[in-house]
Every structure is written in C-alpha cells, then in structure tokens.
Amino acid sequence: MQVILGVVFHFIGGFASGSFYIPYKKVKGWAWESFWIVGGIFSWLIVPPIAAWLTIPHFTDIIKATDGHILLLTYFFGLLWGIGGLTYGLGVRYLGVSLGSTIILGLCAVFGSIIPSVYYNFYPKEGKDTFTMMLHNPWGQWVLAGIVVCVIGIIICGRAGTLKEADLAKGRADGADNKDYRFGLGIFVAIVSGVLSACFNFGIEAGKTMADTANEVWKASHPGPGNFLYQNNVTYVVILWGGLSTNLVWCMILNARNKTFGNYTDKQKPLLKNYLFSALAGTTWFLQFFFYGMGESKMGNGASSWILHMAFIILIANTWGLLLNEWKGVGKKARYTVIAGIATIILSVLIVGYGNSLK
Questions:
Q1: What is the pTM of this model?
Q2: Element of type H or E holding 188
Q3: How far apart are CA 173 and CA 164, in angstroms?
Q4: Which of 150, 295, 303, 330 could anchor a disulfide with 9, C-beta 3.0 to 4.6 Å?
C-alpha cells in the first residue's frame, strides 16, 4: 500500500511538472525573462517557505541548527540546478513542450541517478553506493544499461527534431504553434539543462540532514512505522534559494539588455492576468517537488523515486504537446520518430528503476 501511495504521489508531482509551463502561454505582451522570473519568485521564494511553515513546525530552527557546510553545499547545488531550470524554460521555448521536455528530462533522469554514485566514489560515505559498486553488481549493471538506452532515445528524439525542422522549412507545417522553434539552439540548451537539472537531486542528498531532523521530530510525537510525508520541504527552501539566485541574476540581465523592465508596470498590457498566470505557473511548478517528497517518503528509495518522477513528467509533457498541436501538420516520419524516441526514453527509466529495485 505504501508503494502504491508513493506512485500516486509521484504521478501528481509529474502532472504538476509536466503542466506548469502551460499557464505561461496565456501571458500576453511580456518578454520571456519577465514572466519567467515572476513565476520563479513564486516557485522559489514565496511558496516553498509557506509549504514548509504549513507542514513542519519551527522549520526555520532546523535550518539555523544545520551545519554551515551542509547549507552551503545544498545552496550550491541549488545554484547549479537553477541554471538547469533556466535553460529548461529556454529548451521548451525553442523545441516545444513535448520534444524539449523529453530530451531534458531524459538527461536529467540519467544524471540524477548516476552522478551521486560517482561523487561517492571519490568521497565515500557509509550507506551510499559508489560507481565501482554499480559496475560490479547486477543492479548497477542494469542501471548503466538503462543509461545507454536513454542516450539512444535522446538521439532518436534529436533525429525527430531535425525532421520537424525540415518540415517547417518546407512549409508542410506553418509553425504557428511554436514560432520560436529553433532546433540547433534548442538542443544545446536542452543538453545543458538536462545535466544541471539533475543537481536538484544532489541538493536533496546534500541537505538530507535537515530532512532527517524533521523526520525525527515528527516521529517523536507520532511513534510507529512510516516516515514523515513532508520531511523534504525544509530542504527545498535552501535548494530553491540557489535556484532563485541564478535565475534572478540572468533575468535581470535580460531585462536590462532587452529593455523590458517596463513589462512589469506597462498598463497597456493585461497586467493582472499576466501576474496571475505567472503565479499559477510558478506555484504549479513547486507542487511537483511537494508531491515528490511525499512519494519518496513512501517508497523509501531516492534513485527509484527520481526515475519514476521523470517518467511521469515525460508522459504528461508529451500529452500536452499533442493537445497543443505542436506536431500538427508535421510529416508522419517525424511524428513516428519522436514517438519511438519517447518510448525508448521511458523504457530506459524503467530499466534504471528496475536496477535500483534489485538493491
């Protein structure tokens, strides 16, 4: 029953992540950097501490009592993840919801699963799996096989992108649903995003002490089996400070470069509507990790949880891509190719998840 609940929570989180960009499409007359940072303020500054305050009594005391080195490392991974999150928005902008999300999240799933083991190979820690252990154990070999399959899937999706670009150039699809489509630039930022977005998982690992403290406090007043559903909410606060720092600096640079600071007060634009849709997008984005933490607390396996989370996001994002007609009018070869790529990536995350389940 605990595992079923974990899967349900991960699905809800995946739905939130795969859907968060949709409200941004309702923002009118604002530059990308303007609506991205307004939504981001809700994602990374406003909603996380509210969620922690509602679920973890005295969460600020836990942060204050945490070793400075742990806080700094958690924040640092948040900074790196922030770059990944920033380029995620650009990747979706240039490639579309389905193709962009598939490539980015496929890479994120791979690196989020494997890099921690590489880190622990150089800095061993009791109870943590190293890359060497993966190479010499059946479960690790399955994980590595899944990574190879994921890379193949990403290559197939990349091929679909080039076919789509060729169809757009020939006029077989008018491209009205994604006027910003730029495959070359999009694939570059997608790769950067996929690698760095995995740092969120590293941040959760780095700040595990805070989550453990929240779990211990909860168990002291709730004796019995099971873990605290909301233990990760305190860790998110610190990780997302890092994400906010990166995105705020970059968006302000873009505002200055593109002279778009006026977006925030331009009464000729639907300001209230733009702020509301941006806030909805930002809040929806945070809900993915709110439910991710609940799912992980039920499943008790961080790596498998991360893989399952990514798989659900890929499914939801691609469903939205179809509903938004991002592939309408594109040739059958391109559509069949992207479907094959998506299926391959989903297969890869299932293989990795199976490998982790053998431990």
A1: 0.74
A2: helix 183-197
A3: 9
A4: 295
